[in-house]
Amino acid sequence: MERRIIAINALSALQGGGQSYISNLLRYASEFSNIKIYIFAPPQFAHLYALPKVEVIPSIIPSKGILHRIIWERLRLPELLKKLKIHLIFCPGGVINFSPPSNCMTAVTFQNMLIFDGLERQRYPLGYRRLRLALLERISRKSFKQADLVIFLSEYAKKVVDEKVPDRKGLSVVIPHGLDDRFRTAGRDYIPRLKSLPEGDYLLYVSVIDVFKAQIEIVRAYHILCQKQHPKEKLLLVGSEYPPYGKLVRKEIRRLGLQDKVIITGQISYTDMPSVYHHAKAHIFASSCENCPNIVLESLASGRPLFLSNRAPMPEFAGDAAIYFNPYNPEELSNILARYLDNESWIMEMGKKAFERSLLYSWEKTARETFRAFENLYKTEK
What we know:
Elements: E1 4-9, H1 16-26, E2 35-41, E3 54-58, H2 66-75, H3 77-83, E4 88-91, E5 105-109, H4 118-121, H5 128-146, E6 149-152, H6 155-164, E7 171-174, E8 202-206, H7 215-229, E9 234-238, H8 243-255, E10 262-266, H9 273-278, E11 282-285, H10 294-301, E12 306-309, H11 314-318, E13 323-325, H12 330-340, H13 344-358, H14 363-381
Parallel strand pairs: 1-2, 1-4, 2-3, 4-5, 5-6, 6-7, 8-9, 8-11, 9-10, 11-12, 12-13
């Protein structure tokens, strides 16, 4: 089989999610004997990708800022692709900001559903956030039209882009994110409980505190529940914050007198999250704009019941292993929690279903399907 040389542009992967996606794919690259991989990465993250069959090219200038990266990608990257005789350049961030050599194919992954959801974008005030998302939509449309392969993380995401960008020239494939086995804690004999966790049971909502995540509505639903039956479980909100919305969430907590019952922890280390998921009584996830919700996959793996937003693509990933609710109807969620939280047999049954559902997802499967998609792309070249 002809040897293929792949380059990965990881210069925009500055957060944990993007880095995890790339590094987990690369862990299984050695299974494909006919490929050689180069990866362009910021020097400070080069160690994340130092794996067999991968040659990391630390790139200093484009790591200085977004303008440096744009200029470098347009002027320098095409020269490097030609010099290294690259057959395929993979842009996991979803953007092709350069003109590849004529014999070099392109592949992208569609990651950010928010750029194609105008209604959700309007939740942000006029300013930098909305402008950035609008610009990303324009760039992404152009990139998807240009790409030889677009990888979608869900059937829902593909449906949206099929409607928004129907005139794409390349191939499409749906490959969900994988799941790290460290999150499969259900049934394990002993998972240490973090000292920072509150005593007793808690309901867990893991997600960035942001305008389309409906934390205010979840706090209101919890308040209604407290008025109905005085639950023993506290509510934990775990994640980083979009500051303007975070202030509104805290204001609502104070207004409802829930300072001792609702706890905002901030971001918790990725390595500590399996314990946080495992010791929850149940998980809540109320986002109204997702592509492939990693948090839902990780929650499934803990073997705890899930109460999920009824917006797509949540049912696509959790199936019948969750209870769904309208994220903007606090009364509905409070009624569901009141019905199920004290039903121990139901909690055990749904926890088992959740864990079994999690077995559909693994990084090994994701990586293999991704590299096979690249191989199929090569076949179209002939």
